[in-house]
């Protein structure tokens, strides 16, 4: 039985897991089970108490419940790619940038997206998110990728979240001063890699024929 990936097409955490799997693992290495968050399958809840997506259940039964762990696992199967995407010299910088994305930026993103559920105005949360956009744009002013002239794990882990931020008010984002960031995001959105991980699958049900990925 191959590894099983519980995924949700539009979730940025699941996107980053699918990106890393698609980049590193051989064709059809995992069985993909599309989850609907308000109707999570029992087999997911049974292996993961918190039952967030993505979850990867490895062949020998070990369960990875964090998107970053799934990315690191995918890289660990391909030391040649690991050296490019997560070189020792940049390891700490890459992981700390991803940490800011998953922390302060995600905090602002959730509130910017659903401002009516929170205390402050949408503009307030957007400004908080802009601190990160600004920092990313600065990095991209002189280089094609976040860590320099080579793509790295940081690009793959972060762009699904910038995509979501941009989608809240596309007009605003496209007219913003973050020209290098817009170009970087457009590059990723148009990439074969991204397009290939955004295939639509119906909700997985117990007993369905397996769907393999990538
Ligand atoms: N820290 C987790 C976060 C994953 C996460 O929060 N995923 C969301 C979907 S985007 C989810 O599953 N939420 C659970 C729910 O809505 O019940 C990771 O990196 O994998």
What are the secondary-structure elements, in order, as H or E? EHEHEEHHHHHHHHE
Rg calc: 17 Å
* Inertia-based shape: globular
**Beta-strand residue fraction:** 5-15%
What is the average per-residue confidence, as pLDDT, rounded to a whole number?
A: 97
Describe what this molecule looks like in 3D.
The protein is α+β, with helices and mostly antiparallel strands and 214 residues long. The protein has 2 domains: 95 residues, Glutaredoxin (3-Layer(aba) Sandwich), CATH 3.40.30; 107 residues, Up-down Bundle (Glutathione S-transferase Yfyf (Class Pi), Chain A, domain 2), CATH 1.20.1050.10. The chain is built from 10 helices and 5 strands, in the order βαβαββααααααααβ. A 5-stranded mixed sheet has the order 4-3-1-2-5. Helix 1 packs antiparallel against helix 7, helix 5 packs parallel to helix 7 and helix 6 crosses helix 9. The longest helix has 23 residues. The protein is globular, with a radius of gyration of 17 Å. The structure holds glutathione. The site of glutathione has 10 residues, from helix 3.
Short description:
The chain is an alpha+beta fold and 214 residues long. The protein has ten helices and five strands.
Give the topology.
Elements: E1 3-7, H1 12-24, E2 30-34, H2 42-47, E3 55-57, E4 63-64, H3 67-76, H4 79-85, H5 91-113, H6 122-142, H7 153-168, H8 170-175, H9 179-189, H10 192-197, E5 212-213
Parallel strand pairs: 1-2
Antiparallel strand pairs: 1-3, 2-5, 3-4
Helix pairs in contact: 1-3, 1-7, 5-6, 5-7, 6-9
The structure holds glutathione (GSH).
């Amino acid at each position: 039985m191959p590894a099983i990936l519980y995924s949700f097409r539009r979730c940025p955490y699941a996107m980053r897991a699918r990106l890393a799997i698609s980049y590193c693992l051989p064709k059809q290495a995992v069985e993909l089970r599309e989850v609907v968050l308000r109707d999570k399958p029992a087999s997911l809840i049974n292996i993961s108490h918190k039952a967030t997506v993505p979850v990867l259940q490895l062949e020998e039964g070990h369960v990875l419940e964090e998107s970053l762990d799934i990315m690191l696992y995918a890289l660990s199967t391909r030391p040649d790619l690991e050296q490019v995407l997560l070189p020792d010299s940049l390891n700490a910088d890459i992981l700390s940038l991803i940490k800011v994305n998953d922390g302060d930026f995600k905090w602002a993103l959730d509130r910017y997206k659903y401002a009516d559920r929170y205390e402050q105005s949408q503009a307030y949360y957007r400004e908080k998110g802009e601190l990160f956009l600004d920092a990313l744009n600065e990095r991209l002013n002189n280089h094609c990728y976040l860590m320099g002239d080579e793509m790295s794990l940081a690009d793959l882990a972060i762009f699904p979240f910038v995509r979501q931020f941009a989608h809240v008010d596309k007009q605003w984002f496209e007219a913003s001063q973050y020209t290098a960031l817009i170009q970087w995001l457009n590059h990723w959105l148009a990439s074969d890699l991204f397009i290939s991980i955004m295939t639509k699958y119906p909700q997985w049900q117990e007993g369905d024929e397996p769907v393999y990925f990538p």
